[in-house]
Amino acid sequence: VDENQSFRFSQWEEDPDVASAVAAIRSLLEFLKRDQSETILGLRENMTKAIQRLEETDSSVAVSSGGELFLRFISLTSLEHPDLSQCKNVMIERGELFLKKISLSRGKVGKLCHTFIKDGAKILTHSSSRVVLKVLENAAADNKRFTVYVTESQPDSAGKLMAQKLHNLNIPVTVVLDAAVGYIMEKVDLVIVGAEGVVESGGVINKIGTYQMAVCSKAHNKPFYVVAESFKFVRLYPLNQQDVPDRFKYKADILKTVKDLNQEHPMIDYTPPSLITLLFTDLGVLTPSAVSDELIKLYL
Amino acid sequence: MMLISAAMTLVVGHELQSAEPKEEKQRLRKEKKQHKKNKKDDRGPPEKEKEKEKASVPAPSKPATQSPAHKAAPVPVNASASESPVAAEKPAKSKAELRAERRARQDSERASKQGKKEGGQQSTSSKPKATPNELQPVVKRLPDHVQVDDPVALKKLAKKLERQQKSGQGCSLNITGVKVPLRSDYGYKVSLFSHLHQYSRKNPPTQQISIPVTVIHPSIVRLGLQYSQGIIAGSNARSVALLHAFKQVIQDYSTPPNEELSRDLVNKLSPYISFLSQCRPLSASMGNAIKYIKKEISNIPSQCKEEEAKRILQECIDSYINEKIILASEAISKYAIEKISDGDVILVYGCSSLVNHILCEAFEKQRKFRVIVVDSRPRLEGREALRRLVKKGIRCTYVLISALSYILPEVSKVFLGAHALLANGYVMSRVGTSQIALVAKAYNVPVLVCCETYKFCERVQTDSFVSNELDDPDDLIVTRNGKTHLENWQTVKSLGLLNLVYDVTPPDFVDLVITDLGMIPCTSVPVVLRVKNVDQ
């Protein structure tokens, strides 16, 4: 069952439109449907093991946060039914509900954020984010004229992908080097980035290079906006870059094969909340200090 | 028009003077309501026309703009620029009437005081009143311990202590001269802090109490002395000692006849609490503990037998100590140990029982780290922390706070304890903490504050002046090489010694607060308070 499931998961992941967390949750739901355990405790254990298995395939923060949230969401109700299959049905129902809710979240974020893009704005973004793409799509549909600068975002050149997608939407776009962020900052009006995970302090974990961009924008007094769906909220609290757990920093296959992680390049970095102006989520427009409030509501 | 109606009610009141106290109270309450309505109506005119019934209290501090008090006939008061309340005196009032009148008077005084409340200093009421405030009395009164420079407030405090002695006595006893002592201030106070008390350790509060003491339980007297002499220090230690003393009090308590335990015991505790706050101002944790006990006592069902009630209360106190202090520190160490990695250099300040516990636990869990203990005069509490950590086997370095910027480049994390966490996210802790947080921020070193949730308080403070504690100024005197330079500091009129105890740290300098509910940013303290209030 495990092998099948991770195979399906990678299939779903490859779908370019689907967020990795959503793919994870979909496969977890499938797993739930197929699960054979006799007790609720056993069910939970199996689910936790399944989440771990998924993390081994894709080690991003979003998968881990999505998985944990899914688990909490389905077991939120006091499952009073004495019959296990009835319980399972309730859980599956809630799981479907959860999945539907989060599939809509990207649209909600897009609707919230595009009003912050004024006509004639110059936007800087980092690497390739589907949520940012949605936001820019909405803004373009609103007949706003703006230009976008995208960083190349090595080592996987994801920025070039983003530029291609934006080109298809007829939005004028320029690709800049990662090293040119300081150079370009005085030209832009605002910075919008996505997030792989939003942590308890209100900071974000995102592709490497985001922290640099945030520091530059602070120095130039440009607003730094983060767009993220609510299932990316995770119960981490890093104090600085070193405090982010290793399992998120590197790709899953590297974690398994390489001995000395100090020689590897990390794929993500942590941006502290003091550098972020606003966060756009499907729960609303939040300041970084309000993230903890929302997290407490989500998790407690 | 209003004057007439007001005078009418006064006349009526005068006639009803001999009526039952209950009706009197009701009538007074109605009058109060009318006052409030009248005040709402006329916001413009600076002159207010009020009339009150006042007990025959001498008011020498009030200036002579008061109309002379007549014995019998009610006098409609024409408040001049000053709003000092005056009214007729009435002979032979019962206690209930006195209390009701006092309440009415306090209400009006509170409303009038709001105009002058912003300034720290309160001059006597001869100052012309500012435009009458538009806010109705929604603002809370200032606590007594931050109004030391206001003679009116001091007088009220003295009367309150006297009153408590009377009510605590019971009508059958007849002991003279035994009361909750009002401690007098010592030495010249720096003008910025003249609104706070400054006591000397050489004048303990028990000097004025005669033996035998029937009003104050002996374990409370002992506790008060231990506080004032600094034998018990540290907010956890003080709260635990307080709760144990209250356990003893409850054990020795016996309900007087015709009284209910739930009401009488709370009244009995009030003079104890006043006494303790005279010995040393109550900390936020102690305040929360007292609130909890009072709530538990008043929740005792009336049909409960005395032994049963006492047992319940003892259990409540035990569970409070266990949950909020002992188990909370276990939970906090669990979270904190996740943040301590191998090779860390951790800086701690002073002696916080919680931080020491965390470090000892982390060491037992085989984390490799070393500690830098920062200390400061005059308390030199860091030496106690140093002693405890070295005993465990942790590698420590000891510096004074003046060497802070020298040592900070080596440090990877700063762990601080807290005395209280305020509702706007500020951290109140031992003086010197905000300095450490500031310098750590400048060096980009993460600052972690560890605090149990029972120390969270609803107060809001943005600076260290408005509410603080002044310790004995003589502590600052030190003898070096046989010479004591400050020995005769009192003779130098322009010299003041300031021995502050607490300061507040803004939330921008604190990266993380570790509580028993988890790790939260400093700005989420009001969220926790809200969640706690919902729970209760």
UniProtKB/TrEMBL annotation, chain A:
Keyword hit for Cytoplasm: yes
Keywords assigned by UniProt, alphabetized: Cytoplasm, Initiation factor, Protein biosynthesis
Record carries keyword Nucleus: no
GO cellular component: cytosol; eukaryotic translation initiation factor 2B complex
Function of the protein: Acts as a component of the translation initiation factor 2B (eIF2B) complex, which catalyzes the exchange of GDP for GTP on eukaryotic initiation factor 2 (eIF2) gamma subunit. Its guanine nucleotide exchange factor activity is repressed when bound to eIF2 complex phosphorylated on the alpha subunit, thereby limiting the amount of methionyl-initiator methionine tRNA available to the ribosome and consequently global translation is repressed.
Family: Belongs to the eIF-2B alpha/beta/delta subunits family.
Stated name of the protein: Translation initiation factor eIF2B subunit alpha
Source species: Cyprinus carpio (Common carp)
Gene: eif2b1
TrEMBL record, chain B:
Lineage: superkingdom: Eukaryota
GO MF: guanyl-nucleotide exchange factor activity; translation initiation factor activity
Lipid biosynthesis found in the keyword field: no
Main location class: cytoplasm
UniProt region (Disordered), positions on chain: 1-147
Residue stretches of biased makeup (Basic residues): 27-38
Places the protein is found: Cytoplasm, Cytosol
Keywords on record: Cytoplasm, Initiation factor, Protein biosynthesis
InterPro entries: IF-2B-related
Keyword Ribonucleoprotein recorded: no
Skewed-composition ranges (Basic and acidic residues): 39-55, 90-119
One GO CC annotation: cytosol
Role, per record: Acts as a component of the translation initiation factor 2B (eIF2B) complex, which catalyzes the exchange of GDP for GTP on eukaryotic initiation factor 2 (eIF2) gamma subunit. Its guanine nucleotide exchange factor activity is repressed when bound to eIF2 complex phosphorylated on the alpha subunit, thereby limiting the amount of methionyl-initiator methionine tRNA available to the ribosome and consequently global translation is repressed.
Family listed: Belongs to the eIF-2B alpha/beta/delta subunits family.
Record-given protein name: Translation initiation factor eIF2B subunit delta
Organism annotation: Cyprinus carpio (Common carp)
Lineage, highest ranks first: Eukaryota, Metazoa, Chordata, Craniata, Vertebrata
